UniProtKB/TrEMBL annotation, chain A:
SMART domains: AAA (SM00382). This is Multiple sugar transport system ATP-binding protein. Residues 4-234 form the ABC transporter domain. GO terms for molecular function: ABC-type transporter activity; ATP binding; ATP hydrolysis activity. It holds the Pfam family ABC_tran. Belongs to the ABC transporter superfamily. NCBIfam families: PRK11650.1. It comes from Shinella fusca.
TrEMBL record, chain B:
This is Multiple sugar transport system permease protein. Gene3D superfamilies: MetI-like (1.10.3720.10). It is found in: Cell membrane. The lineage of its organism: Bacteria, Pseudomonadati, Pseudomonadota, Alphaproteobacteria, Hyphomicrobiales. It comes from Shinella fusca. The keyword Hydrolase does not apply.
């Protein structure tokens, strides 16, 4: 149960700046997900928190105490790696207890802690095995156990589920959520998977090119993306983006002649290039709102939904319709969007305008 | 095509090579075995069949026992030193520092030199009149007067071992360095976060990845050290007072200097047997190490 403060962290490798001033304040028990594509700096930030890399400038504090320059072992953090990073020649029991062993915790006390952790993770029967004799999911549980057993102030996860197959990844995601609800330890979790971010986080920091693009709750990130990048990174299928132009307080969708009066855009000068975002699930076949005449190009049934890719005035729009929707390729359809569900971005600065 | 034809064809294709192998290895081997049961000389014809006489004489002779001892001493000390120095050098060269690439390239130099060049070089260093070792030790005050390092039975073997180490530790270092580079960074990081110090990290993180490759280096070096000939022949010819006479030197002297082909052959076969036992034993060890690492 600890707070974590990341204060103006910068990191340069030679002339290349991989972190350009990161500020995050975490309350005790928060689950922060650092979300971004590879190369955005999220793993570097995690390594700096762990002490595996030092920042060029800035400060990191746990419970108000600076930990910059401190040896990793003295920071009271535990880390789970993408590759599991188990010690290949030690048994599961010793792998889990390794941190305690290195900290000179007595054998009896260690054994008790290892068994308790193993029970929590349902790997008690595996304690005498070597890592090579375990499946990927079991190895990941051992890696989590090794972190859990030390009861650290902060948990760090570096893409822990990336090496698992889809089904196992879902199971372990739920498992991680359960463990966090149980232990209430502060967590920093790195991933490029937006579903993991949405489901696990209390807050998400979307990172891009060494900067935080947006820091907010999953709801904020999803419902009010601050930039075009965040809007397209989170959500599957991704948000539709329609080219539009500001005209006398209204927004004209290019190629359609449809003009929308959207609140909050009164001050935008006429002629400004805009991007109109709308999530596929906000596009319906019936109901209120603006109607677009569209022609269906592809209809894909996923099971619960029918994903329809259609053309609107030369622009492409994807709608997630109910599975029962009777739309086939070549059909002319009218798609409805509630004006309130439009996200408006400046095409040049990529910032949200409404 | 039937499998019988495939097998026949395979044998047909291999036949020329087999014929050459039999001619240049198989026949001399067989002839050596035959010779070892005779009292044949190097020159002249035939020789009488003498049964196990050569073997009995040789195994009970002081020369053989002293040579076996000298060989074992040379092999154990030089290989141990090479392994330790090699691993330490590899650990050092695995650190990040300025000029590392140059040092890594330089490392291979002693090993790349022909043994005869290396041996000649060390003979110069050990030279009793103008050798660099004498000069260096006298100048820093560790030595009162010049010594004949290769001329005294008490120091000749140690001097040889030193020269052999200098030549062969780079091989161990290169193998160890390659293994070190295969240690996953995540595991090293995990050990750091877990609070493992340098020794624990070496013991639990590095060593498991080093063990297999090092075993291979150990096998190679031990077998080579056991049949060592060239470096000793160039530096001491087995002297002084036979203090550096190893098994291979003894075989050479017996067969070629004393021209006793029969007993030379029996001696050579015993050396071959010892090396084969070592090779098979180590082979089993390597397989076990590989099995436990997987």
């Amino acid at each position: 149960m600890s707070t974590l403060t990341i204060d103006a962290i910068r990191k340069s490798y030679g002339a290349i700046e991989t972190l350009k001033g990161i500020n995050i304040d975490l309350a005790s028990g928060e689950f922060l997900v650092l979300l971004g594509a590879s190369g955005c700096g999220k793993s570097t930030l995690l390594n700096i928190i762990a002490g595996l890399a030092e920042p060029t400038s800035g400060d990191i504090r746990i419970d108000g105490r600076s930990i910059v320059g401190m040896h990793p072992k003295d920071r009271d953090i535990a880390m789970v790696f993408q590759s599991y990073a188990l010690y290949p020649n030690l048994t599961v029991h010793r792998n889990i207890g390794f941190g305690l062993e290195m900290r000179k915790v007595g054998a009896a006390e260690r054994d008790r802690a290892v068994h308790e952790t193993a029970r929590l993770l349902q790997i008690e029967t595996l304690l005498e095995r070597k890592p090579a004799q375990l499946s990927g999911g079991q190895r990941q549980r051992v890696a989590i156990g090794r972190a859990l057993v030390r009861n650290p102030k902060i948990f760090l996860f570096d893409e822990p589920l990336s090496n698992l197959d889809a089904k196992l990844r879902m199971e372990m995601r739920t498992e991680l959520k359960r463990l966090h609800q149980l232990t209430k330890t502060t967590v920093v979790y790195v991933t490029h998977d937006q579903i993991e971010a949405m489901t696990l986080a209390t807050r998400i920091a979307v990172m891009r090119n060494g900067r935080i693009e947006q820091l907010g709750t999953p709801e904020e990130i999803y419902n009010r993306p601050a930039t075009l990048y965040v809007a397209t990174f989170v959500g599957a299928p991704p948000m539709n983006l329609l080219a539009a132009t500001a005209q006398a307080g209204r927004v004209t969708v290019d190629g359609t002649g449809i003009a929308l009066a959207l609140p909050g855009l009164e001050a935008v000068p006429a002629g400004r290039r805009l991007v109109l975002g709308v999530r596929p699930e906000a596009v319906g076949q019936a109901g209120e709102g603006i109607g677009f005449s569209a022609r269906c190009e592809v209809a894909e049934l996923t099971g619960p939904e029918r994903i329809v890719t259609a053309s609107v005035g030369g622009q492409r729009i994807v709608a997630a319709l109910p599975a029962a929707a009777r739309v086939e390729a070549g059909d002319d359809v009218t798609l409805h969007v509630d004006p309130a569900s439009f996200h408006v971005f400046d095409a040049e600065t990529e910032a949200r305008l409404n | 095509m039937s499998s019988t034809w495939m097998t026949t064809r395979a044998w047909l294709l291999m036949l020329p090579l087999l014929a050459i192998m039999i001619a240049v290895i198989g026949w001399p081997m067989a002839d050596t075995v035959r010779l070892s049961f005779t009292d044949a000389k190097l020159v002249g014809l035939g020789g009488r069949f003498v049964g196990f006489d050569n073997y009995v004489k040789m195994l009970t002779s002081g020369n053989f026992q002293r040579a076996l001892y000298a060989t074992t001493w040379f092999a154990v000390v030089s290989v141990t030193a090479e392994m330790v120095i090699g691993v330490l050098a590899a650990l050092l060269l695995n650190q990040r520092f300025y000029g590392r690439a140059v040092l890594r390239a330089l490392l291979i130099l002693p090993w790349a030199l022909p043994t005869v060049v290396n041996a000649t070089l060390w003979r110069l260093i050990y030279n009793p009149e103008y050798g660099a070792l004498n000069a260096a030790l006298t100048q820093i005050g560790l030595l009162d007067s010049y010594r004949s390092w290769l001329g005294e039975p008490g120091t000749a073997m140690t001097a040889l071992i030193l020269a052999d180490c200098w030549k062969n530790f780079p091989l161990v270092a290169l193998i160890a360095l390659a293994a070190l580079q295969a240690v996953p960074r995540d595991i090293t990081s995990a050990a750091l976060v877990d609070g493992a110090g340098p020794f624990a990290r070496f013991r639990f993180v590095v060593l498991p990845y080093l063990a297999g490759p090092l075993m291979v280096a150990l096998v190679l070096r031990t077998i080579e050290a056991f049949k060592v000939f060239d470096i000793i022949w160039v530096m001491t010819r087995g002297g002084p007072a036979n203090s550096t006479r190893t098994l291979s030197i003894l075989v050479y002297q017996e067969a070629f200097s004393f021209q006793r082909a029969g007993s030379g052959a029996s001696l050579a076969l015993v050396v071959t047997l010892i090396v084969t036992v070592l090779a098979v034993g180590y082979g089993l060890l390597v397989r076990r190490a590989a099995g436990s690492a997987a």
